[in-house]
Automatic annotation (TrEMBL):
Protein name, per record: Metallophosphoesterase family protein
Species of provenance: Mesorhizobium argentiipisi
Membership in a protein family: Belongs to the metallophosphoesterase superfamily. YfcE family.
Domain Calcineurin-like phosphoesterase, chain residue ranges per copy: 1-185
Gene3D superfamilies named in the record: 3.60.21.10
Matching Pfam families: Metallophos_2
Highest taxon listed in the record's lineage: Bacteria
């Protein structure tokens, strides 16, 4: 079986189309799995939602999908979520909220956005000196404890960072990176950034049960018209998004972070 994995599209329909085109050029896939955070961002939320609904992919709910669908539009609402919420129809918002937290794609292969029991806490990451880094193995194991022991492969997103981790006597974790948002800043304490380091649209391909060899994992980075996406973000009044889309980095003052390593935030478990 050949599984294509997309995550964290964030309303970037241009990046999504580039990924789909690239996948077709590579021979397609038996199934395309969407790991959530579909539309939140100052780009093309309604167009992205319409494209995804037409594709009808197996999809899990991301934290921003929940927030776009459920949060009250006020000053406390995150701007990217409010932008998307204002542009979606009521049925589209209801469809986002109805997405499941987890999906078993095939026996032993489980998909979720962040963790199997939570859509907003990091699975394989720790916050260290204002950056996302790989978490200790013991912490990752603990965060997976609700999974069925028969699970052999975990597909997850949320951090926007490509990861491939084999847990000893446990599952393989595969995060394809973000299709449409190559960098972000989260000012929730402890404040941190995630940076893919380039503007490419990211996705993954997994080949299972390959005759004569082990499962195969491929992380793919696709060029697309990121300048058009950046200009769209600028028109929406989000220059920091525009910079992230152009560069894959956040403009942020590193000296604002502590010199010492920041311990894992308690909320991250």
């Amino acid at each position: 079986m050949r599984i294509a994995v997309v995550a964290d599209i964030h309303g970037n329909v241009l990046a999504l189309e580039a990924v789909l085109d690239d996948l077709n050029q590579r021979g397609g896939a038996d199934i395309i799995v969407n790991l959530g955070d579909c539309v939140s961002g100052p780009l093309w939320p309604r167009e992205t939602m319409e494209r995804l609904q037409a594709l009808n992919l197996p999809t899990v709910r991301g934290n921003h999908d929940r927030r776009v669908a459920q949060d009250v539009a006020d000053k406390a609402m995150w701007p990217s979520d409010r932008y998307a919420q204002e542009r979606l129809t009521a049925p589209q918002r209801e469809a986002l909220l109805a997405l499941p937290l987890t999906l078993e794609i095939v026996p032993g292969v489980v998909a979720f956005h962040a963790r199997p029991d939570h859509d907003e806490k990091y699975l394989a990451d720790a916050i260290v000196d204002g950056q996302l880094l790989r978490a200790p193995l013991a912490a990752i194991r603990r965060r997976l404890k609700s999974l069925d022991p028969a699970c052999r492969l975990v597909l997850c997103g949320h951090s926007h960072r490509n990861e491939l981790i084999r847990i000893p006597d446990g599952p393989v974790i595969f995060n394809p990176g973000s299709v449409g948002c190559p960098a972000y800043e989260d000012d929730t304490a402890p404040a941190h950034v995630s940076e893919q380091g380039s503007p490419h649209a990211r996705y993954g391909i997994v080949e299972l049960n390959v005759p004569g060899r082990a499962d195969r994992f491929e992380a793919v980075a696709v060029d697309y018209d990121h300048e058009a996406a950046a200009k769209q973000a600028e028109q929406a009044g989000r220059p920091e998004w525009a910079n992230a889309l152009r560069t894959g980095f956040m403009r942020i003052e590193r000296s604002s972070y502590p010199d010492r390593a920041e311990p894992m935030h308690e909320a991250q478990g």
